[in-house]
Input
Amino acid sequence: MTALSELDILIGGVLITGFEGLEVGADFEDHYLKCPSGGFILFGRNAGSAAQVRALTDCLRDVALAHNPDHPTPLIGIDQEGGSLSPLRGIVSSLPGNMGLAATGDPEAARYAGYVTGCDLTTLGISLNFAPVLDLAREPLNPAVSTRSFGDDPDRVAVFGREYARGLVEAGVLFTVKHFPGHGVSPDDSHVSMPECLMSVEDLARQDLVPFVQAVKWPGAAFMATHVKFSAIDATRPASLSRDVITGLLRGKMGFDGVVLTDCLEMGGIRPIGSVPEAAVMAIEAGCDIALVSHTRMIQEAAFVAIRDAVQSGRLSVSRLEKSAERVRRWKEAIGAPAAHGRLPGFRTGWTYELLGERVVTYLPGQADSGPVPVQPSAQPSAQARLFGHGPIVLVTPQMDRLTLAEDAADISLLKHELERRGISCATVGCSMDPDAGEIDRAVSQIAEAGCSLDLLRGGPGEPGGPGEEKPCTRVALVVRNGGASLAQAALAAAIEARADELGWVFMLVSVRDPRETRDVQEALARRAPAFFTYSTEPIVLSALSRVLAGEASPRGVMPVGL
Output
């Protein structure tokens, strides 16, 4: 085996890199010798099964230790946030995203989710979760944050983020808070371009910075810096490359001396500044300890060379890299050994997997001034009894596009399966995300045909099911997500509601993303239609929603953002 020099190991230690495929490949060692990174980031592209992921992480450690036998094992991280960003979907536990956890109203739910996630990751050989998100969900149409946030209240975000991180630590997993100093204020996506925040420092301190200020005190905290430019602090560079933000604000005024990472330097938010290799050097100059280069081998190798050249020219000092290495060493030691594997039944506060899903689902009655209310299916008012029962359901599912590279595509097919498993007759009608008038007319006709077919299958609307019994009413549920097409979906909703009223059916909304994306729809309906909110399409919440609609469970969620 080729031995790496101490300087190569030191330089590589400030890089975390990613790669394609389920295996490292025969040429991976050659690449590693050109770029001996201190850690690796995994994505969905690297995950096929639990056994395969475990074999992959073992292989990564073996390669690194073969060339660095006297140095700590490499970091192996992933963005397993839950909800919309779940690269290990189908391999680890299905869990709500952050906004869904906040909807439970109990920070212990976040701790439970963090612990379950941490246990899953340690089993797979993953030592670092790039979570929790501490951004405020201040801009409803921000595609990079949205339901990845715990909400729009700074104190709530801080409390839920702290408990989620606590759960990870209890499972022996490192964590990073992100995206410092806050990505939620901008409607733009840093995966595509460099957003600019024009807020004053004083406004930032009162709002977006609040969770991060508290996170400075959390044991084992590391910070991930965003590619958003905060003009009141640095008018030329994004936060991830700004000495004024990283060294001046975070390390100086806020007093943080732990590990600081960049977001991936191959994102669009870096392009206005220059090349990725140069950005990697600028990040270390700014005060970051680790530069994340997630995708391209050639760029990763060039970043390593750029940092080495910066050291040889005197632009970066060896002592500066040694300081980052020491911070990373302390970070790893702050966590300690992983907890014993396996679930803690009921955790420590009565939480169970099934209960978590039910506590996420939020019910908003069809009344203009009503807020979210818990429902007891066993004692439903007559108006609610038509919602919670065994009546057939037509699911109307406009296309749900992937909104950003930071999330997975939505899939609600499980909802139909779960409803049918509970004896609920179910049909689906699809349409585009942004339907025009002709497509709306066709969709409404298809909905009516599907509903009438379901009526015939169960013996007809209103036909007694037994002495003194009335068959449950047919229900039509419009599943909404994409706020960018909300005006078209509002027109679709109004047309469906009118036909449902004509046929004597119940019309309702189901939102699987930020509740504020339904604003146009609800305004078009004058808030008459009851609405259910799940904040993601994870199996845990769709299964819970199916139990609610079957009258088997209560929706207990509270609204995590202001409407």
The mean pLDDT is 86. The chain is about 40% helix and 10% strand. The chain has two domains: 75-335, 357-549.
